[in-house]
Amino acid sequence: MLRIFLLFLCALVLRADVASVRNEHNLEKRSALALDEADAELDAARKAYSDGDLKQFRDRAQTVGELAELSYQSLDETGKKARRSPKWFKRAEQRTMQLLRRIESLDRDVSLEHRGVVDKLRARVSTVHDNLLHDIMSKK
User: Fold this and answer.
1) Helices 54-77/115-137 angle, 10° precision
2) DSSP assignment, residue 86?
3) DSSP-assigned states of every residue in 58-84
4) How far apart, in Å, are the Cα atoms of 120 and each of 1, 68, 87, 124, 140?
5) Over its length of 140 residues, how does the chain's per-residue pLDDT go in tens digits?
6) Cα–Cα distance measured from residue 35 to residue 65, given in angstroms and rounded to the nearest whole number
7) Which of 1, 15, 38, 139 is the most buried (most CB within 10 A)?
8) How far apart are CA 102 and CA 39, in angstroms?
């Protein structure tokens, strides 16, 4: 019973972190906060995996993907063109590249049966990274 309560409490805390990022009104800062939080969630996912808590590992990995997508969505909502105002877009591109490197490291550390979770996460973050690069490099 206590274990179920703790899992529920952890789920609420995870959602609270994403909600606190969403409450940031400055969209560029929201993007940076989302990537900071994604980095912390990736650390927590790695720790949960090493502790053997696979449910929390999956939840935290999913949260990393949500936060990466929130970062891109926030930059997109600014209405700014990445080619004309590249500062925040380039920072987000660099941070997502760092996240992808860390996800690759996590992929090497997890067992074969749990790599599907990491593969899905890599695909989500890679899509965000590719979108950022496209926006920075395109002439439109």
Assistant:
1) 10
2) -
3) HHHHHHHHHHHHHHHHHHHHT---TTT
4) 31, 13, 28, 6, 30
5) 545 544 444 544 444 467 778 888 898 999 999 999 999 999 999 999 999 999 999 999 999 999 999 999 999 999 999 889 899 999 999 999 999 999 999 999 999 999 999 999 999 999 999 999 999 998 76
6) 10
7) 38
8) 9
- Cα dihedral 76, 78, 84, 85 sign: negative
Q: How far apart are CA 59 and CA 84, in angstroms?
A: 37
Q: How is residue 35 written in tokens?
A: 């990537």
* Encoded tokens for 97: 């590249």
Which residues, at least 6 apart from 136, have a Cβ–Cβ distance to it below 8 Å? 82, 83, 86, 89, 90, 93
Helices 115-137 and 87-109: crossing angle, nearest 10°? Answer: 160
Q: Which amino acid is at 33?
A: L
